[in-house]
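Exercise 7b. Backbone tokens:
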């Protein structure tokens, strides 16, 4: 007796349950009033897998379809990144995608803004300390004995030193913290540590400031934020502040073994960019 196989669309994944009550409240608020919600997302490590060369980073292949399914159902989707906004747009493949009309990319921690509706980047003049640091950086790395295998990433309004390709990435990272902090301080900048990367950038630029500004600009009544690295902690703190002000929120960690601080603070931990994409897709299906 033969079997008959039918092909049908599989049911959507069930929504995961946040581990905390504030997180459960945030998810419930999103489901109840999606058109009043802002969904904030980091790029590297959250929408895009971490790679040794940041120039080769690209969004997870299912990220744009998931975002295009979700974005029309919420007030705004904001990608908040330390990268220049234009670079994040190119590496994400966000431009000209139907369904992403509600997408904003806040580059350089909010100093640059790209809106899908206009397709243009707006930004103030760069901090003069960045050019000064850029000029001195090779000499500082050489004197620190950590030049071999390190790599400088030009970010326009910031500059980053990566140690992922060094013979001992963590030792190179630790050896550079003090000299790079001294260099940054002399030129009015700060150092933001991340996953085997030290970024020198102007103060007053962080993902928390960018997220709060965007939420207030939209007039959102709930917020979701997903990130993976130390630079996302200010955005987590911003969501905590919003929650204390009565705006429900959900904190999502794109989990990795390299950084544990976010997982400890998050309401929900998912399995890297693949898990983030699955969550976005599931939310979009739930909001049908």
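Sequence design result:
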């Amino acid at each position: 007796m033969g079997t008959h196989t039918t092909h049908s669309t599989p049911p959507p994944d069930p929504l995961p349950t946040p581990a905390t009550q504030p997180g459960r409240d945030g998810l419930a608020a999103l489901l109840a009033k999606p058109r009043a919600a802002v969904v904030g997302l980091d790029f590297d490590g959250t929408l895009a897998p971490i790679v040794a060369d940041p120039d080769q980073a690209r969004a997870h292949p299912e990220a744009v379809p998931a975002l295009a399914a979700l974005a029309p159902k919420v007030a705004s989707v904001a990608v908040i990144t330390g990268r220049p906004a234009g670079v994040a747009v190119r590496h994400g493949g966000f431009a000209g995608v139907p369904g992403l009309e509600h997408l904003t990319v806040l580059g350089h921690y909010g100093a640059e803004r790209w809106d899908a509706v206009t397709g243009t980047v707006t930004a103030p003049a760069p901090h003069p300390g960045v050019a000064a640091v850029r000029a001195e950086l090779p000499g500082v790395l050489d004197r620190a004995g950590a030049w071999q295998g390190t790599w400088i990433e030009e970010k326009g309004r910031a500059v980053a030193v990566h140690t992922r390709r060094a013979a001992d990435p963590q030792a190179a990272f630790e050896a550079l913290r003090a000299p790079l902090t001294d260099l940054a301080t002399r030129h009015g900048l700060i150092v933001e540590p991340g996953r085997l990367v030290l970024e020198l950038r102007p103060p007053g630029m962080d993902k928390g400031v960018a997220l709060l500004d965007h939420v207030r600009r939209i007039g959102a009544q709930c917020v979701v934020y997903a990130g993976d690295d130390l630079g996302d902690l200010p955005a987590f703190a911003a969501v905590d502040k919003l929650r204390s002000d009565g705006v429900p929120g959900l904190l999502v960690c794109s989990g990795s073994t390299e950084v544990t601080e976010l997982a400890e603070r998050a309401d929900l931990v998912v399995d890297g960019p693949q898990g983030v994409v699955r969550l976005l897709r599931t939310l979009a299906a739930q909001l049908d």
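Instructor comment: DSSP finds nine helices and twelve strands in the chain. The CA atoms of residues 194 and 230 lie 5 Å apart.
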